[in-house]
Every structure is written in structure tokens, then in C-alpha cells.
């Protein structure tokens, strides 16, 4: 055996060791070599097959299961037109009745002077990958359906709770009880609004806080506000998104601060203003809540105030690992929450 024959044998064996399938044609498109992986993939190893017979000999189909005309196959296009085909997919019906999803690339091969030597098709078995993708898609669709059902039930339950609180409120004349029920209703409505924002969001675990707080503050002002007209403003940079485990305590804290302002800050005033500023600093977020009401008592202390609203605020702040401070350098009331 001459050196050329030895080299050819070694090359053929090297190609047979490849995990990818390989089919080689001569310049006219006649199949001259099929490596072991390609033969296993097709369940067929036929040499001397012309381009017009590729599909029938190797049982090739489109992904939709219809016949794949031989002249439209990647290898035929590479042979005939010199087209470089990359990562196209098709089906192989094997003689044993199994079906393979194949992905392959084809191109002409030239010598140094530009003369066509033939064409090469490389292909891989993607059956497992495609099956896994289908199963994953089905699992995602099932999960989405179940999540939609859960969200629907949660929304209904929260609405029912709000209705029950409203019903109980209408049946009592005690001012203190009415006040307590109003606060309970407000807190449930905050939870319901967060759930609604999550339900509408493409990101089921996070909320665009700027958009959310604008609506939430308007809702709270409408629900609790008295006779004094209140202007509500929320300022936030675009696209500040927080995870739900931060949004919930933050929203409840703002709700408590607004409730206090609406109940006590504007007594005797013709108008009132409440604002929320959300800022993203280098390493933390800062939430500044402010009203232009009568202000806090001179001896007010956040930690020892004893009121339920302030207790809720400080408790929620600990959940956020946040610092809450009271600023007294401006008219009205100003709380700063940083975390």
C-alpha cells in the first residue's frame, strides 16, 4: 500500500471516529463517502447515489413530515448552486421505524486553484434536544395555565375580603371601628394592587415601582382622603424594578404613611400635597415620602411612637434591612427609607 493509500485510509478512519455525521460527494453530486455516524443516523449507507435520489434513498422529510424534494436539500443546493447552507433541520425516517431530527450544514469544497472537488454535508442527531424542547414548552404552557388559575383565585379572594370589610363597615356606627376597618381595607387593597401589577407584568417576580406607586398612591388618596383635595405625585427614574419581596413591605409602608397624612396632616387645610421620590443611588435605593401638612409633634420619636401605623413601618423596614429616618428641615412631614 502506497503512502497516498495509507493516508486515505487513515483519513477515512478518522472521519469514522467523529461524533457528527459526514457525507462527501464528487463534483457532480454523487455520494462517495458516508461515515459511521451518518450511516447510523440514517440506518442506511448507500454510495453512488446521485443528487436527484438523495431524499428517496435516505428517507428524508421536512420538519412537518412532508416529502423533502431532493433538489431542495442542503447538500443538493451546495452541489448545484455553490450555496453555503448552515444549521438547517429535517427529519430522517429510518428503516427500523424510528425517526431522527437532524441538523446539518453543507458547502462545496475547492482546491487551491478554485476547481470544485466536491461537497461536504455534516449533520448531527438533534432528536433528544428537540424532544426536550417540546417537553419544556409543554411544561411551561401547563405552568402558565396553572399560574393563571392561581392568580385568578387570589384576585377573587382578595376582592372577597375587601367586600367583607366594606360590608362590616356599613353595619357599624362606631367611629373607632370604622377607622380600623378603613385601615384594614386599605392594607388589603395594597396587597391586591401589588398582585394585580404582578399579574399584568411580563416579569412575574418583579414590579416597575414607578408605574406601580403612581397608581397605588392615587388609589389610597381616593379611598381614604376626606374633604380636603389632595394632590399626589410620584417621581421615579424609568425602569426601577424591584423584586416582589421588597415591593410588598415598601408599598405597605407607604400606605401607612399616606394613611397618617390623610387622617391627620391636612386638618383645617384647603388643599394638601403628598409626594414620593424614588432614587437609585450608587449602592442603595432611597425612598423619600413627604407631605406639606401640619407636621409631626415636636417630641415625636419613630421608635417609641406607639402608634400601629408607625409600628408597621418600622417592622416592615426591618424586613427590607432598611433605615427609616424623619427629616424636620422642611414644612410638613418627611420620611426617608433607604436600603
From TrEMBL:
Keywords on record: ATP-binding, Kinase, Nucleotide-binding, Phosphoprotein, Transferase, Virulence
Superkingdom assignment: Bacteria
Entry's EC annotation: 2.7.13.3
InterPro entries associated with the record: HATPase_C_sf, HATPase_dom, His_kinase_dom, PAS, PAS-assoc_C, PAS-like_dom_sf, Sig_transdc_His_kin_sub2_dim/P
GO molecular function: ATP binding; protein histidine kinase activity
Catalytic reactions on record: ATP + protein L-histidine = ADP + protein N-phospho-L-histidine
Matches recorded under Gene3D superfamilies: Histidine kinase-like ATPase, C-terminal domain, PAS domain
SMART domains xref list: HATPase_c (SM00387)
CDD domains given in the database record: PAS (cd00130)
Pfam family, one: HATPase_c
Protein name: histidine kinase
Lineage of the species this protein comes from: Bacteria, Pseudomonadati, Pseudomonadota, Alphaproteobacteria, Rhodobacterales
Amino acid at each position: 500500500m502506497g503512502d497516498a493509500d495509507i493516508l486515505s485510509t487513515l483519513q477515512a478512519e478518522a472521519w469514522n471516529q467523529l461524533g457528527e455525521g459526514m457525507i462527501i460527494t464528487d463534483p457532480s453530486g454523487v455520494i462517495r463517502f458516508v461515515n459511521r455516524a451518518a450511516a447510523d443516523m440514517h440506518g442506511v449507507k448507500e454510495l453512488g447515489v446521485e443528487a436527484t435520489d438523495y431524499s428517496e434513498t435516505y428517507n428524508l422529510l421536512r420538519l412537518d413530515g412532508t416529502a423533502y424534494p431532493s433538489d431542495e436539500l442542503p447538500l443538493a443546493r451546495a452541489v448545484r448552486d455553490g450555496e453555503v447552507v448552515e444549521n438547517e433541520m429535517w427529519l430522517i425516517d429510518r428503516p427500523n421505524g424510528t425517526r431522527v431530527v437532524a441538523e446539518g450544514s453543507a458547502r462545496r469544497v475547492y482546491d487551491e486553484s478554485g476547481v470544485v472537488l466536491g461537497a461536504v454535508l455534516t449533520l448531527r442527531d438533534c432528536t433528544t434536544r428537540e424532544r426536550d424542547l417540546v417537553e419544556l414548552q409543554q411544561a411551561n404552557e401547563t405552568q402558565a395555565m396553572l399560574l393563571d388559575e392561581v392568580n385568578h383565585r387570589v384576585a377573587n379572594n382578595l376582592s372577597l375580603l375587601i367586600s367583607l370589610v366594606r360590608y362590616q363597615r356599613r353595619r357599624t356606627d362606631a367611629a373607632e371601628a370604622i377607622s380600623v376597618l378603613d385601615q384594614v381595607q386599605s392594607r388589603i387593597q395594597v396587597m391586591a394592587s401589588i398582585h394585580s401589577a404582578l399579574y399584568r407584568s411580563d416579569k412575574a417576580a418583579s414590579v416597575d415601582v414607578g408605574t406601580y406607586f403612581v397608581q397605588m398612591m392615587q388609589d389610597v388618596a381616593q379611598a381614604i382622603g376626606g374633604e380636603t383635595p389632595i394632590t399626589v405625585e410620584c417621581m421615579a427614574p424609568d425602569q426601577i424594578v424591584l423584586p416582589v419581596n421588597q415591593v410588598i413591605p415598601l408599598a405597605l409602608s407607604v400606605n401607612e404613611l399616606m394613611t397618617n397624612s390623610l387622617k391627620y396632616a391636612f386638618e383645617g387645610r384647603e388643599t394638601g400635597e403628598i409626594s414620593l421620590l424614588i432614587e437609585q443611588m450608587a449602592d442603595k435605593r432611597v425612598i423619600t415620602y413627604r407631605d406639606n401638612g401640619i407636621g409631626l409633634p415636636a417630641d415625636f420619636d419613630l421608635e417609641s411612637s406607639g402608634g400601629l401605623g408607625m409600628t408597621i413601618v418600622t417592622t416592615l423596614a426591618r424586613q427590607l434591612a432598611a433605615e427609616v429616618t424623619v427629616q424636620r428641615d422642611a414644612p410638613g412631614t418627611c420620611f426617608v427609607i433607604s436600603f
